[in-house]
Target: Flagellar basal-body rod protein FlgC
Amino acid sequence: MNLFSSIEASASGLTAQRLRLDLIAANLANAESTRTEGGGPYRRKVAIFAPRDQQFSFRNIFTKKLNGSPEGVRVVAVVEDTSPPRRVYMPTHPDADQDGYVSFPNVDVVTEMVDMMAATRAYEANVTAIEAAKSMMQKALEMLRV
Model:
């Protein structure tokens, strides 16, 4: 992997983690939304990541290593969490069902905060990798000047 492809791989990680942070922010903002346009409570959204080159074969691996083709991550999809909504007994709430229960979003604030910290750390790691590659390029250019 050359330095440019390492920067490209880290840049794809930055993009993926930013989307992940955007989804976490949307989940936290809607943690108490009991009514959506589609009906029912808000559903937690999660990003699904995959490697950029998902075709696995020995030929692809060797070609990729020889040619220095870009590696990294891509967002395959943004899906809704299928876990059931949290039901709370609140008979006076306008969205209560006939039994007096309100369906709240399946968003756990603690889980979202942990995911946010992990995404932030991954973002910082990608920034550090880009800075390291940039520093190596600068040192190589300085060596060529001498």
The first helix runs from residue 3 to 29. The beta strands are 45-51, 73-80, 86-89, 101-104. Residues 93 and 102 are 7 Å apart (CA to CA).
